[in-house]
Amino acid sequence: KETKRRLSLWSSVVSESEYQEPEETLPVLKHDSHLLNDYHLQKLNAHMPPKTQGYPWHLVYSTAIHGTSLRTLYRNMADLDSPVLLVIKDMNKKVFGAFCSDPLKVSKYFYGTGETFLFSFNPDFQQYRWSGENSYFVNGNWESLQIGGGGGGFALWLDADLYHGASFSCPTFHNAPLSTQEDFTVLDVEVWTVQC
């Protein structure tokens, strides 16, 4: 009995020492990011849909490179047919945004799927998934971009100059406001695509 107990104890010690946490792999960025550091990348990558895992991220739009224009943002995505990651930094240096199942575009109606989610680094990572309450995922026109809705406010709203924004709690995601204040001034915007 004692021999069996020792063997059992020994094998459990060996298996614990052999066990290692899986390494979190960071996505490969095909361009430099002004907004995302390794911590951001690790957290976002872990929450992206499985179909996007393992693919490189391509920068489609950046205010630092392309200027501050919603029209340019839409134009840069005209030929895309893949999910996008919208990343915003406000004047308070807070980073937040949305993973959208479809490219951002001008549309008469809301579009997208339940894979769409919101995120915020506050400074810890917060994620807001689809609540199932409505399907107001993404809508764009020449004057603004809206993500989430119902109940009188958008989860994320950006103006045509990508300078003013707003973030309110909304039924689509049951989110807290993403920025420090409900109305915020944009410092920088990046949009990444994961071409799967």
TrEMBL record:
Any one of the GO CC terms: nucleus
Domain of life the protein comes from: Eukaryota
Family annotation (PROSITE patterns): TLDC
GO-annotated biological processes: regulation of transcription by RNA polymerase II; response to oxidative stress
Positions of the TLDc domain: 34-195
Any Pfam family: TLD
Entry-linked PANTHER family: NUCLEAR RECEPTOR COACTIVATOR 7, NUCLEOLAR PROTEIN 7/ESTROGEN RECEPTOR COACTIVATOR-RELATED
Protein name: Nuclear receptor coactivator 7-like
Species, as recorded: Cyprinodon variegatus (Sheepshead minnow)
Species lineage: Eukaryota, Metazoa, Chordata, Craniata, Vertebrata
